[in-house]
Amino acid sequence: MPRREGRVRLLGLDFTACGMDALLDAAMSHARSREPAAVVFLNTDVVVKAETDALLREMVGKAEYVLADGMPLIWISKLLRRPLPEKVSGSDFVPRLCARAAEEGRSVFFAGGSGESVQKACARLRQQYPALRVDGCSPPMGFERDPGQVEAVCRAIRAAQPDILVACLGCPKQEKFVYENRERYGVPVSVCAGATVDFLSGAVRRCPAWMSRCGLEWFYRFLQEPRRLFRRYFVEDMQILRLILKYWKEAP
């Protein structure tokens, strides 16, 4: 699938209108051709932030593939008559991408998460996919503010020479790192995937599949960390209602 085709304009952002299988095929095609591509996954929280954060909006706009990570965005796309085919989350995509990479003997590098999470995630993936070459690093907190530490992370990535980089630094840090540095680290496929390394390591439990299908993944996360996430979900993310009304007039 050509990277700039099949776009759907939704809530002021351009989403890629493709499902999981098409995205996997596209990512592996980039890994083979060495043509650079960035893959980002947006939930309602990121969409709300992008409305007022011009840099985040620009970074998302420069990504070759932009996916809707969450059933609420799929429902909104249908409500605004700009339907997206399906939810595609980074935490679902990355394990399947690793499986595909293993089939071709390709390599994956994780940047982000704690050192323990990175080591456990890599060990589990090696056990599950013996043909997969996988490594990673855990940048120190605040590394993005130190050019020397950013360069050290880029050097670690370059030294591993992976086909796929999975940046698990949180939004918007991971998007900014990829946006500013992908030419420096020289990896064909860059995936911004949030807490995926923590899910793969077992440090954080995934929400049950039925809750995800029902659009309740956010509620599962809230129950795990209510004090930290209350403001995000019940104050900040409620701005999505304002955005729906704002962009309603643009609906075809």
Q: Would you state the CATH class of the largest domain?
A: Alpha Beta
The beta-strand count equals 8
- How much strand content do the residues show? 15-25%
Number of helical segments?
13
Domain module tally:
2
Q: Globular, elongated, flat, extended or rod-shaped: what is the shape?
A: globular
Oligomeric state as shown:
single chain
**Architecture per CATH nomenclature, i.e. the level-2 architecture of the largest domain:** 3-Layer(aba) Sandwich
Sheet with the most strands: spatial strand order = 4-3-8-7-5-6
For the terminal residues, how far apart are their CA atoms? 25 Å
If you consult CATH, what is the topology of the largest domain? Rossmann fold
Largest sheet: 6 strands, parallel
Helix/strand class: alpha/beta
Poorly predicted ranges: none
